[in-house]
Amino acid sequence: MVGDHSERERLVAALKASRAGTWRWDVAADRVDWDEALSAVYGLPHERAPKTSAEFLQLIHPDDRERAGRLLGALLESGREIEYEFRAVVGDRIVWIYDRSTLVRDAGGRPSYMTGACLDVTERKKIEEERNVANEKYRLLLRELHHRVTNHLQMITTMLRLQTARLDDLSARGSASIRWPSCTAASIATRVSTASRWPAISATSARACAARCCRRTSPCNAS
Predict the structure, then answer these.
(1) For residue 125, is it within any domain?
(2) DSSP H helices in the chain
(3) Do 64 and 86 meet the contact criterion of CB atoms below 8 Å apart?
(4) Are 159 and 82 found together in one domain?
């Protein structure tokens, strides 16, 4: 007996250290038993741990409660092990819980009791949320970058076409002295980078784009 008690104490200590805990639900009697480690996961005094399935469901966030109840109901029907995550509301705190549950049937095949192990995954969820926010900001930056580059290259293309049209007009009038505008790829690239003020536009990429514009619209020197 002493050995069993000591073994249980070691188990509870190990569960607490890993922010995990276990529970058991007697289906017929609707009696829920939590170990002390699970109470610690939820941040509840052990004497306030839920004693019935209804009391347990009340701890679940309203937005997750229906889904959790549906999953547990499905487990009673199918008997297949389930795992799911939900938010628990304890006072003014939100705790993210990962749960894996298993059903045990009696000799007649009826649900006898359900057991489960829970893990506090609040910190992991926080990291995932921060990563998702960062990814969304990155997508917005890329969209803005594409918009700015497109606008600036359109502006350069329009400028070159206007210059070419003016030179064609001078040529048609028989102008004796026609000077092609000095729109080198290097100078246009400088304008693009300066106008955009966007560090992601490298000088090499801007120069290459400007050179292509020069080749398409006028006999400029794409240096």
Answers:
(1) no
(2) 2-17, 36-42, 53-59, 62-78, 122-172, 185-196, 203-217
(3) yes
(4) no
In a domain, 130, yes or no: no
> For each successive 10 residues of the chain (223 residues), what is the average pLDDT?
58 68 95 94 94 95 95 91 94 93 92 94 87 74 74 76 70 56 50 49 53 50 43
Sign of CA dihedral 135, 138, 143, 144: positive
Question: 53 is in which domain, residue-wise?
Answer: 2-120
What is the pTM for the complete model shown?
0.56
Q: Same domain, yes or no, for 6 and 107?
A: yes
Spatial strand order in the sheet of 111-120: 31-34, 20-26, 111-120, 93-105, 82-90
Tell me whether residue 64 is in a domain: yes
Rg for the chain (alpha carbons), in Å? 35
Question: Could you give phi then psi for residue 116, rounded to 5 degrees?
Answer: -160, 160
In this structure, the answer to whether residues 162 and 195 fall within a common structural domain is yes
> What integer pLDDT is reported at residue 4 of this predicted model?
57
Q: How far apart are CA 214 and CA 223, in angstroms?
A: 10
